[in-house]
Automatic annotation (TrEMBL):
InterPro entries: Tscrpt_reg_Rrf2, WH-like_DNA-bd_sf, WH_DNA-bd_sf. Keywords: DNA-binding. This is Rrf2 family transcriptional regulator. GO terms for molecular function: DNA binding; DNA-binding transcription factor activity. It comes from Vineibacter terrae. It comes from the Bacteria. PROSITE patterns: HTH_RRF2_2 (PS51197). GO terms for cellular component: cytosol. The lineage of its organism: Bacteria, Pseudomonadati, Pseudomonadota, Alphaproteobacteria, Hyphomicrobiales.
Length: 150
C-alpha cells in the first residue's frame, strides 16, 4: 500500500502547524518551505479544513492553524479523511471489479485484514506523537524557515 501525495502533504502541513501552534501560516509559505506544489497544497488544505483538523482565517494577516490540539488529532482519522480509496486490489470495489478469479480467490481476506491492521496502528497515534522529537524537528524547522523563495 502506498499513501497518496495528498495524504503525505496533509501530514507534513499538520506537523508544521503543530510545531508552530502560535503562528498562522499561508499556503504559499508552507508550499515554499516544503518545496511542494501550491495548487496541490491548496486542495489538501481544503480537505483538512472540511474535516475539521485545520482552521483557515481569511484576509490580510490570515492563514492556517490547527483547529484543535495536536493530541486530539488522530493519525488514522487524518489518513481516512485524506485518502480517496483503500481499494488495495480490484476486487475491493465491487462496482468496478472485472477480475475473473474473484469467486475462487483467497487474496481479498488477508489484504482486508492487513488494511484493518494498518489503520488500527495509525489509530493509536496522534499528531502530537509525530512531533515528539523536538530537537531534531526544531533544527529542521529553522532550516525550512531559512529556505529562500524560488
Amino acid at each position: 500500500m502506498r499513501l497518496t501525495l495528498h495524504t503525505d502533504y496533509a501530514l507534513r502541513l499538520l506537523m508544521m502547524l503543530a510545531m508552530e501552534p502560535d503562528d498562522l501560516h499561508t499556503v504559499e509559505e508552507v508550499a515554499r518551505r516544503y518545496d511542494i506544489s501550491r495548487n496541490h497544497l491548496t486542495k489538501v488544505t481544503q480537505t483538512l479544513v472540511q474535516a475539521g483538523f485545520v482552521e483557515s482565517q481569511r484576509g490580510r494577516g490570515g492563514g492556517l492553524r490547527l483547529a484543535r490540539q495536536a493530541e486530539a488529532i488522530n493519525l488514522g482519522a487524518v489518513v481516512r479523511a485524506t485518502e480517496d480509496s483503500f481499494d488495495l486490489v480490484e476486487c475491493f470495489d465491487a462496482a468496478r471489479n472485472m477480475c475473473v478469479i474473484t469467486s475462487a480467490c483467497g487474496l481479498r481476506g488477508p489484504l482486508d485484514e492487513a488494511l484493518r491492521a494498518f489503520l488500527a496502528v495509525l489509530d493509536r497515534y496522534s499528531l502530537a506523537d509525530l512531533i515528539s522529537h523536538p530537537r531534531a524537528l526544531q533544527r529542521m524547522r529553522r532550516l525550512l524557515a531559512e529556505t529562500p523563495a524560488a
